[in-house]
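Support reply, case 0932

Customer input (verbatim):
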Amino acid sequence: MAAKDCHHENLAHNGAAHVQRCIDCGCISIHMGPVTVRLDDHGLEALFAVLGDACAILHERHARLKTSTGPRGIA
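Our regenerated output:
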């Protein structure tokens, strides 16, 4: 997918990750600290979906725990 002569455009970034797309080949690069993951458009969409699912489950569990333990963590 990615070649040495790729020309990247920045798509998004925050404190956790930096996402770029190669203008030439379309490869998506996700940089997280020392790790870079390269995906095509479909892989990026699939990753987005599974991360969204994981976040929704964590939020649900957190809300359930908060409700079951009360305001001071006392059951």
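We compared this against your earlier run and they match. Two observations from our side: The helical segments are 41-69. The longest strand covers residues 8-13. Please reopen the case if you see a mismatch on your end.
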